[in-house]
Design a protein that fits this description.
The complex is a heterodimer. Chain A is 47% helix and 0% strand. Chain A is mainly alpha-helical. Chain B is of the alpha/beta class. Among the domains of chain B are: 64 residues, no CATH class; 35 residues, no CATH class; 153 residues, no CATH class; 98 residues, 3-Layer(aba) Sandwich (Rossmann fold). In chain B, the strands form three sheets. A four-stranded parallel beta sheet of chain B has the order 7-6-8-9. In chain B, strands 3-4-5 form a three-stranded antiparallel beta sheet. In chain B, strands 1-2 form a two-stranded antiparallel ribbon. The longest helix of chain B has 30 residues. Chain B starts with 11 loop residues before the first helix and ends with a helix. The chains are: A mainly alpha, B alpha/beta. At the A-B interface, helix 2, helix 6, helix 8, helix 9 and helix 12 of A face helix 5, helix 7, helix 8, helix 10 and strand 5 of B. Chain A: InterPro entries: Nop53/GLTSCR2.
Amino acid sequence: MGKGKKKGWKRVPREADENIHDVNLKRHISNLPDEEMFVIDTTALPLEDEKPAELTFKQKAALKHKLCKSALKDEDVDMKDLELKTFPRVAFSSETIKTRSNKLDQASTKYDLWEEDNTKPAESTSNDFEAVGIEHYDKVLQRKRRKAPKATRFVPNIIPAVEIPKEGASYNPTLDSYVAYANQIVQEELKMEKAEKKINKNLPAKNVSNVGPGAEFEDFRSLLNRDEEEDASDDENPISTNVSSKTARTKPKTIKQKKLALLRKIQSLQKDKESMSKKQLQEFSNLKKTLRDVRKEEDEHKAKIAARKQQKVLDSLTKRKKLGRGEFKAYEEPVLLTEELTGNLRQLPSRGNILEERFKSLQKRNILPIAGERKKSNRKTTFKVKFVEKRSVKEVTKGSRVL
Amino acid sequence: MGRIRKKFQSGTSSIYISRKKALKKLQLTLKDFRRLCILKGIYPREPLHKKKANKGSTENKIYYHVKDVNFLANEPLINKFREYKIFLRRLTRAKAKGQKDHAERLLENKPQFRLDLLVKERYPTFASALRDMDDALCLLFAFAALPRTKAVKGNVVADCRRLTTEFMHYVIESHSLTKTFVSIKGIYYQAEIMGEKITWIVPHERGIGHVTEVDFNVMATFVDFYVAMISFVNFRLYKALGLFYPPKLSNNVDEKNFVFEENDLDEKIYSLARPIARTQTSEPEPTIDTFSESDTQESLAEKMKIAQALRTLFAKCKFFLNREVSKEAMALIIRSCGGTVSWEGCIAKVYDEKNEKITHHVIDRPLDNVDINRAYVQPQWVFDSFNARKLLPTDKYAPGRTLPPHLSPFVEEKIGEYVPLEKIEQLKEDGKDITHLLKPDEDKKKEVKPKRQKTKPETPESGMSVKTGKVFKENLQKKLNQVGQELKLREMMIPKKHRRVYKKIKYGQKRQASEKKKLESKRQNN
């Protein structure tokens, strides 16, 4: 494409899309009186008392050079040079410097955003081809705003933004509601305490016994000695101990006993067979009932599946999802102790922070991810010093010792 | 031979993209990306199969939908971010070099972007914007009380204050406040605006303590967006009601002696004490926009009546607030029910403290001087009267008295649930049928339990007495069992490497013992 053609694009207004709202702005600005557009700045900002600025290295070097030079030439030093050259401190305060569009910003919101009149005026074109061309032009030059794709219309959560407060959270609650509310919070705290205890229990014991490593052997042997003693006194004691020995193996069976056992087995099998046929007869008579039961079970099973599916969908819309590897700590609802429940609004102590609650609520509703800490790389941070022996060839001369 | 399909090229793995990759694709810093996501309303997703989405590994990452990221790539706001970055770089250079003029010029031409189009994109209809008002209002009210810091800029806080006051003025003028509840965190309000129930919390007027876990940059971005959104919502609401936007004071009162300075006028409007100007004089009729299916004609008519009664609840009352009472909350409730309010040091004062026509004086500390013509009440009277929709007797709320408990109007009576005594009494007075609320053992709970005199139930004193004792018989079996258990414990404590040897020794010992026994039994038998 030729250079001239490309340059022509620059003349096209790039922000024509924003012109829609600029139109309103301009309309408004032309109607505004002078007083609303310009402000006479009456605030005089005093510059702070400046500390004498330190000379930079360059300045110091230049000064030194000058002094040396003057000393060499035996000239009088110019006192003005020795004074610190301070650049005027630039004092910035957003109050003194009013940005150009401070006042205009307010003006920009004075139109109805949802009014249908503000849409882009339809460009009347005689040619259909022209319309297509203009559309393409708009897309390419990014004048037209892209529509949000369907995937972007994602609802992260359907929990209401502000949850309805519990009865016991009132600053002057009834006894029962307060007790119920406090109990809830106590339960949560107990859970946390339990978890902590569990962790502490599994930690290595602080108090290690003073017994040395050889002591284990001693204990072990003492047990054996004890065992020997016990076995000796075993016969005297008619009462059995918990530590019972294994039962002795039974004697092998005789042929007679084997035959008897076999007979008994056959008999039991025959019995089973009879009972089976009896059972089968029973079952035939109860067929309807069994079918009904089976159908009921199937229906229940299907209902369970459907309920589970529904619950899954509901969960995906209400529960907090794990976005990122950070841990989520729920917001602790503030409670007042019984001493603080004076029922007086003036003496109500300040508990709980709304900003924290809002932040946690945003995290709970899957709007904000919890990124967690940065990953620590496994790279070594300390390095071994490598000793490199450097030898030069030039060092080697006649009579030198190279070790 | 068919095409070879590689793993992780289609399906879940091609829909989700991790945050790092998204940053690389969009060529943004993390801060800018976070800002952009918040402003555009792009939320991270949780894929069903993490392993598939992450191409085999189960690392915990933050995933975004690929289409979301492509949509972000077309956002012109990214150019504005880059311009801002360049502006910052130039500004720091100019400041460091001491070029004051250059820096001033740069600041004057600071790149600013407007979020109008974003608001329009995210909320195509006004109703959708109203539905998100909860969150927006809570955040703005919370920010309006913050001190100025690096993350929380002064003009943002001023904007929050202005917009929240405008909204409160709208609520007052439209009489749409329906419920209030004072909790430990703050005051909950619920208003019904154009069919949407909007609930928000206003923190108590106290200093905000040390907050550890809140990222203020993120919240500031939310606030930026919500400020833009609420300014448009306010405009539309004001237009709908026929009020001037930005609000002006109505000219009913004679203001000849006032010197008009701009700041003063703002403060007057912020004080909520005076009504604001309307373009049309007639006030709209109370409308009930939320219907439930169980409503019949009579109940609807009743609701209309109640709504009308609420508008004129405090119409005949003139209030004066003492210094320690929270003025915004009181002014909001009193004026939305038709009353007039004033306080000491109010810029837009209508009447003085000594005015004879004052009917109620809201005070929260012990009384000093009593004026017989007015009723002295604690602030809870206003809240409770509003929730009860009628003027409660003021003697129970006199200063210094223990107040009845403050009930939450958000709780709805369900059959079978225990309803507190005060509510039952209220319902009785209203003439409603309360038999379904009473449980069979309600009589016991009907005893009024005043909170102050909470005494623990006295335990009967355990008296001293002597009874004949039992002879202590030592249970030999138990003893032996205990011994056996001790032995087992000690056996458990043996280290692993010694256990084998121990076992073998024990086995040998037992074998010998059993052989001995066998021989002895044989000898006995013979």
